[in-house]
Automatic annotation (TrEMBL):
GO molecular function, one term: oxidoreductase activity
CDD domains named in the record: AdoMet_MTases (cd02440)
Region entry Disordered, spans: 355-386
Keywords: Methyltransferase, Mitochondrion, Oxidoreductase, Transferase, Transit peptide
Name of the protein: Arginine-hydroxylase NDUFAF5, mitochondrial
High-level lineage: Eukaryota, Metazoa, Chordata, Craniata, Vertebrata
Top-level taxonomic group: Eukaryota
Organism the protein comes from: Conger conger (Conger eel)
Entries under Gene3D superfamilies matching the protein: Vaccinia Virus protein VP39
Length: 386
């Protein structure tokens, strides 16, 4: 466990991580599928020569690309046929910009650094070198700092927050920064060997469309490795605020953003065109002194609620009641309160003819009923002894 997380704990608090399950395929009913964005070659970028540095060191796209992105956004929304506009993306950009400019912003990186390390571990599990990779929603570069240039030779970093890119952590991998919205990736198809993402996709309005764009920019046999928070994240905070508002105001409003359920994730990736899927779940539980510290750290992470239907204010007496409920329902013996983060990890590959494929239905020559009759082969040592 990352030492930075331990510094946020108090007293005898602990950080618990629990792997719930890992499965090669997940099949569940999918959410409505949206039509992907298709950027023309004139609007997209694919190699280093198409970029130029501006005064602040970021790689900027030309104005016609920005205008094209807006037109694509309008077209995309109209073609999606049911795409829900849940999150205020402009508000999320402001939240992340504000959080990145805090004088002690690194103090709030403990969760992102830990999840980024676990994503990097999954990259190391793949025995190959990736010449060109993309980090979608990189924040302050929480994945690349755990990777080596022997694994990833070159890296593109994209984020909606300009300040986050300016404050990015250094790594040994040659990298370039692109200010871009995760919902509209300005890259050509078949560009990257690897795409990674950590703690960013849960703020996207059209997740199926985002998966399709990621699959599109990958080369054949390229891999996508991502992590996002799941539906059970911060259930303690959500329950405490709802009960407090019901008691003090006679009703409640959403204060914690809605998240994707793990039961939908595998099928959404399958519908986006990924193969050989792997989905697994971690629970990271961090202990805080109280509810105010939980909310302060979420704000410092840039993870405040940005749903359109969020409540603009929280009454003081409601907050005090929520703090008491939080302590009563979830408080530990040492006086701390837990905050649970459910992290969903996903791995998907872009199809290629070299990948393993399931055998044709009916091609098997051994029945499952006969498996119990098969005798295991004798080992060489046993044969010599006889």
């Amino acid at each position: 466990m990352n030492n930075a997380i331990s510094k946020r704990l108090i007293g005898g608090g602990s950080c618990m991580c629990r792997r719930l399950y890992s499965t090669p395929t997940v099949r569940y009913p999918a959410a409505p599928q949206a039509t992907p964005v298709r950027l023309s070659q004139g609007d997209a970028v694919a190699d280093w020569s198409h970029f130029h540095n501006n005064n602040n060191g970021l790689l900027s796209l030309s104005q016609h690309v920005c205008a094209a992105r807006m037109s694509h956004q309008k077209t995309f929304s109209s073609m999606a046929g049911g795409t829900m506009n849940v999150f205020d993306r402009n508000m999320k950009r402001k939240q992340k910009n504000w959080a990145s400019m805090l004088p002690d912003t690194q103090k709030y990186d403990y969760l992102r650094d830990e999840v980024g390390r676990r994503v990097a571990d999954r990259v190391y599990d793949i025995a190959r070198t990736f010449p060109l990779a993309l980090d979608v929603g990189c924040g302050r570069n929480h994945i690349a700092e755990h990777l080596s240039k022997d694994i990833v030779e070159r890296l593109f970093l994209t984020d909606i927050s300009e300040n986050a890119l300016k404050q990015k952590k250094e790594s040994e991998i040659p990298s370039r920064c692109v200010l871009a919205d995760e919902e509209f990736l300005p890259f050509r198809a078949n560009t990257f060997d690897l795409v990674v993402s950590s703690m960013s996709l849960h703020w996207i309005n059209d997740l199926p469309g985002a998966f399709r764009q990621i699959q599109q920019v990958l080369k054949p046999d390229g891999v996508f490795i991502g992590a996002m928070v799941g539906g059970e994240t911060l259930y303690e905070l959500r329950c405490s605020l709802q009960l407090a508002e019901l008691e003090r105001e006679g009703g409640f409003a959403p204060h914690v953003s809605p998240y994707t359920a793990v039961t939908d994730l595998g099928n959404l990736m399958g519908r986006a065109g990924f193969t050989m899927l792997t989905v697994d779940v971690d629970e990271i539980q961090v202990h805080y002194p109280g509810i105010l510290e939980v909310m302060k750290d979420l704000q410092g992470m840039g993870e405040s609620n940005c749903a359109w239907n969020r409540k603009s204010m929280l009454h003081r007496d409601t907050l005090l009641a929520a703090a008491a409920i939080y302590q009563e329902m979830y408080g530990q013996e040492d006086g701390s309160v837990p905050a649970t983060f459910e992290i969903l990890y996903m791995i998907g590959w872009k199809p290629h003819e070299s990948q393993a494929k399931p055998a044709r239905r009916g091609s098997g020559n051994v029945s499952f009923d006969e498996l119990g009759k098969l005798t295991p082969p004798s080992s060489p040592a046993r044969s010599k002894g006889q």
